[in-house]
Structures are given as structure tokens and as C-alpha cells.
Amino acid sequence: AAQAGKRELILPLLEVMDDFERALERANDDPQLVVAGLRVIHRRLAALLAAQGVEAFDSRGKCFNPLLHEAVDTVESERAEPGTVLDEVSRGWRLGDELLRPARVSVAQ
Description:
Layout: H1 2-25, H2 31-51, E1 54-57, E2 69-75, E3 85-90, E4 92-95, E5 98-101, E6 103-108
């Protein structure tokens, strides 16, 4: 059952990999076309993750929470309260209510 579940996820990922390979083959072509292709790939990958119940969460402007965030930098800021997330180095991800990966963030001090 676990192998079948992996197969069900991996097959759509292979389609996304094919799209990336086609985009890389065209990397020296018109940059606007390459960017458009990358946007399509991004949407397909986001839809695939959403279909599996995986969602990113936004942290900017929120209060730092060690259960959801990993502080990778602190920044002096006059525009934000200390402990406020200023920027995301990488987004956090959830699978339903489960944290898959904390957001890596810069925090106001």
C-alpha cells in the first residue's frame, strides 16, 4: 500500500520533471517564453501539492512562533515590533494540521 501511494505521487512529479527539462532545453531562447513556462510549471507543482493536502503558509508580518518558524536572522527595525517576522527566507509548509517544514524567517529585534 505504501509503495502504491508513493507511485501515485511520483508519477505526476515525473510530468513536472519533464516540463522542467523542456524549459531548460529552451533556456537560451526568448527569456520571456522561459519565464512563462516556469510559471506554468510552478502552477502545476502547486496544484499537485494542494491535491495531496500540502499547503504553504505566510509568515510575513506575523508574530514569531517557534512552533512554526525557524529564525535565521534578526534585523533592527523601526517599522515593526520586536518579534515580528519581517521576511521569509523559505516558506513554511503544512500537510493538513501537521507542520512539514517550519518557515525560515528574519525577525525584527
